[in-house]
Structures are given as C-alpha cells and as structure tokens.
Design brief:
The complex is a heterodimer of chains A (433) and B (93). Chain A is an alpha/beta fold and 433 residues long. Chain A is built from 16 helices and 17 strands. In chain B, the strands form 3 sheets. A two-stranded antiparallel sheet of chain B has the order 1-6. In chain B, strands 2-5 form a two-stranded antiparallel sheet. A two-stranded antiparallel ribbon of chain B has the order 3-4. Chain B is globular, with a radius of gyration of 13 Å. Classes of the chains: A alpha/beta (433), B alpha+beta (93). At the A-B interface, helix 3, strand 11, helix 6, helix 7 and strand 15 of A face helix 1, helix 4 and strand 6 of B.
C-alpha cells in the first residue's frame, strides 16, 4: 500500500460504505474503502428495490448512468392461502418517468458501479481483503487489521459498513450481547431468467417498466416474514424470508420454503419456462429500534445493516443504508474540521439519525417485531380468513347476500371471537399507528 | 424442479482449501437435541453423520449468510468471513 495512514477507512463496499466513501472522497478526504469480495457487490444480496430519493442525495441523476433494472410502476401485495390469493396494489404510470420512485436492481451490478463512482471521486478501493480486527490506542480506534501480510492500516476514523454479520461492531463492544434469532430474518432468493416480453406480458407492463409483489401468509408457511417477486430487465427475482427464531422452531429449510413458494399455484405461472441463474441466501437485521447498537465510540462509526437500520414493515433498508452513509460522511467532515475524532464529536452522527426519518421510523415501529413474533396467528390465521372472506364474497351461489354476510361473519368468529378480533386490531394499531 | 445441489452448482465460488467455519466442540453436537444447523442453513452446509456421530460441513457451498452462527443454540460454530477473495462471488446478488 502506498500510504499507511488514511483520514478515514470504510469497511465494506455495500451501499452504506460506498455512500460514505464517495462523499468523503468528494470532499477531498483521503479515504480507503476495503471490500472482502472479489469486487464490490460480490457478497451483497437484497430483494432488489433501490429507492431514488436517498440515492439521489448521494449522486444526483444517478439513474442516467447506473445499471438499474426497471423503474417500479406497480407495487402489489398478495395475501396467500394454499391455492388462492387476496390481491391489493397500487399502479402509478408516473412512476415510470423522471424523477421515478424506485427501481429494481441486482446488487452485484449496482454496487460495482457505485463503488466505481467513489473511486473516480478519489477513494482508494481495495478488494479481496478481510478486516479482522480494529486497532486501538487506549480507548480510541486508530485503524484496522486486515488479513493481508503487514496488513495494519491506520486512520483518524473508521466507519464500519460490514453488513448484518456485524462481527467487528460486536467485537468493539457496541453490541454487547450480540444478536439473537428473533432479531434476524433468514432470506433466500433466486434470479430466474425470462425474456423481456414474457415478463411484460405476465406482469402487465410496458417495455422497461417494473412491478413488485410482496407476499404474506402461505409464502412463509405462516411464519413471520414475507415473500417477494420483483421484475428485473430479463429476469425475475423471487425469494422469501422469515424470522430465524421461527425457522429454527418450525424446523424449516429456507430453500424448501422457496421451492414451495415457486410452486404455489398462483405464483407458478409467472415463472413458467424461466431458468434459474443464481441462488442466494442472506440475513436481514430485523431487530429494529431496540436492537440498534451503540453507533459510535472514539474513532469509530457504524452504518447500514451493521447498525440494524432496516424497516422490515415498509421493505426499507437500502435507503437507510444510503442515508446513514451520508450522515456518517458529514460527521467525519465535521470532526476533521475540528481536528477531533472523539466520541463527543462523533455523536453528531447519532443526532443526525435521530433528526431524520431513520430513527423516527424505527422508533415508531419499535414494538412491532416482538409483537409479530409473539402473535404469529396474524401470519397464519389472518391470511386464511382474508381468503375465506374473499372467496365467499366472490362466489355466486344463489345464497341471498344477507345470509352470505352472516355466514362470512360466523366463519370468521368461529376461528377468532369478536372480542379477540377487536383486541388484535387494537394491539396492531398500537404497534403500527 | 432443481435440487439444492443443482442450484448451488449455478453459483460461482472461489473455494479456499481451508474451511472458514468450524465446529467448536464436537461433543456438544452429540447431545444437541434439535441440531438446527442441519436444517436452517440455506445451502445445507451441515449434515449429521450417524456413524461417526459428528456434524460434517460442506463449507464449499456456503452462501455466507451467517444463519448458522446465530441459529446454533449452543453457539458452537466458529464462523468467520472466508479469506479475502475466497467464497461466493455473486454475479447478480
């Protein structure tokens, strides 16, 4: 390495780390971005929705250059039972035009491009390098120990963007008890190649428009979690994930869950004739507000998944990763101006997160994760009831409507009393409202 | 339908000679009642060998999610990142 000391070292070239490195490099700060994979994105997986707004705060007009799949014009929700689905959704043709709302992406392609922008802005990117530990002077973090020979590199400040397997964050004592299985979801995904025209036909799209479908209920065999189907340019991403605690308890293998979803009678026709190109697995940090680690110490900041910044209810994570990277970069710039990288100065990062939607949203849903985990009938019984109600409602069978409504009500209350239903909705409103 | 083995075969790996995951104490697995590692792993890296009474690990197919690390009830898996440049390399991600 040409330089032994950098102003800032960023560990991990996912969207959080790369956003940080890009903004620092643009501000003329000597930044080293370390990635353990062959190339940025080679270890990174997400369902595949990237939001325009936060990304544009980093790189204005990025969509003109970035390797994106399709702008999303329709977002659907399917509540699945064994061979049926209650479907909801919103389609906005304006989402297919600038400035767009969100895009489907494949991370190995997007992250590679994004990191290239950081390099062009002046950051030094080193790949195929694992950071094994942090270097300390007293209580202060002063650099990293990599897996390379003579692999110590020093910096005024280190930003951990190491992702959900936040081993360094835990080692640095910021996440005292580590993580538990109720704070993580295990998700798997396949990328299935399909010709453009087939995708557009099956999803009712114009050329280059995209759609997303989130699936609850049967898609995770009633476990707390969701499935998803996203349209890429000439492939479909399909996957599902559930809380690890429930996967352990119910003895499921994630791949078997996905195979079941692919073969669901309502899903299967969408995939017909497609060819699987890749199979991926990943953890999602679902612990929410109460599982956020301490976000800084002397000479250290934590961003993105490593900081548990994911809102599972709204399918948001990459946006929080982007924005946390931005706030971390602003904090480092501020600390550098003051020549002080102590935790007192770096606490500005937490203040910025608190003032933003990130901690406000996560705080709003702070009890949701635990609520769903302990009330899993919401994911088993309720999808079934929704399908029962819809089936009765749409079946024309010479039964007078009044009698039919009574039958529906009886069918529902046989499974869950009116009092229990009211209690569920009240408690749901309490954690979601 | 593709088997899991077929699917893992589609993935691109740079396999290291050394495993990045180790069972810390083999005795613990013997008395582990449920052995979640044998079913929760998306790549089915872990399998119970009845004859030798050990967990066998096919680390070459690991997708590096870390599920085993947290899912093992006895915290008995020493899971690290593979060495730089080794392990899975997603083309799509």
């Amino acid at each position: 390495m040409a330089v032994e000391k950098f102003d800032c070292i960023v560990v991990g070239a996912g969207v959080a780390g790369t956003a940080t490195a890009y903004l620092l490099a643009k501000a003329g700060i000597n930044t080293l971005l370390i990635e353990r994979g062959d190339y940025p994105g080679s270890k990174n997986v997400m369902g595949g929705v990237l939001y325009r707004h936060p990304t544009e705060e980093i790189i204005p007009g990025f969509w003109r250059e970035a390797p994106l799949e399709r702008p999303v014009v329709e977002q659907r929700l399917w509540i699945l039972d064994q061979d049926s689905a209650v479907t909801l959704g919103y389609k906005g043709k304006h989402f297919g035009r600038e400035p767009y709302n969100n895009f489907t992406v494949l991370r190995a392609k997007f992250d590679r491009w994004f990191a290239k922008q950081a390099v062009e802005a002046g950051a030094l990117l080193i790949t195929e390098t694992v950071v094994e530990d942090l270097l300390y002077e007293g209580n202060k973090v002063v650099g990293v120990r990599t897996g390379r020979a003579d692999g110590d590199v020093r910096a005024d400040v280190v930003v951990l963007a190491e992702g959900v397997n936040s081993m360094l964050t835990q080692k640095a004592g910021l996440q005292h008890d580590g993580l538990n299985t109720a704070q993580l979801a295990v998700a798997v995904k396949e990328v299935i190649a399909l010709p453009k025209e087939k995708i557009e036909d099956r999803f009712n799209l114009e050329p280059n428009e995209g759609a997303t479908i989130e699936l609850v209920g049967e898609s995770t065999q009633g476990m707390v979690g969701t499935g998803f189907i996203y349209t890429n340019k000439d492939s479909i991403s399909i996957g599902c994930g559930a809380l690890l605690s429930q996967v352990v308890r119910n003895r499921w293998n994630p791949n078997e869950l996905l195979e079941r979803l692919k073969n669901h009678p309502v899903v299967k026709p969408l995939l017909e004739g497609g060819e699987t190109k890749e199979y991926a697995g990943h953890l999602i940090p679902e612990g929410g507000y109460n599982a956020i680690p301490k976000l800084y110490r002397d000479g250290l900041l934590v961003v993105g998944d490593a900081a548990m910044l994911v809102n599972g209810i709204h399918r948001e994570g990459s946006n929080m990763a982007m924005m946390s990277g931005k706030y971390a970069a602003e904090t480092v710039i501020h600390a550098r101006e003051r020549g002080d990288f102590s935790s007192a100065t770096l606490s500005l990062y937490e203040k910025k997160l608190k003032d933003s939607f990130i901690l406000k949203d996560l705080q709003k849903y702070q009890n949701a994760s635990a609520f769903f985990e302990t009330n899993d009938h919401l994911f088993t019984l309720y999808p079934k009831l929704a399908n029962f109600v819809a089936r009765e409602f749409t079946t024309v069978d010479n039964v007078p409507k009044k009698e039919k409504q009574r039958k529906i009500m009886e069918g529902v209350t046989a499974k869950r009393s009116k009092f229990q239903l009211a209690k569920d909705f009240y408690r749901l409103w309490r954690v979601m409202g | 339908m593709k088997s899991l083995e077929d699917k893992l075969f589609l993935n691109r790996y740079q396999a290291d000679k050394h495993s990045h995951l180790k069972i810390k104490d083999r005795e613990v697995c013997k008395y582990c009642e449920t052995r979640p590692c044998t079913y929760i792993c998306p790549a089915k890296v872990y399998a119970w060998n009845d004859k030798d009474e050990i967990i066998e690990t096919a680390y070459e197919g690991c997708v590096e999610c870390g599920t085993c690390r947290y899912g093992c009830a006895h915290d008995n898996i020493d899971w690290r990142n593979p060495r730089g440049g080794f392990g899975i390399a997603y083309k799509y991600g």
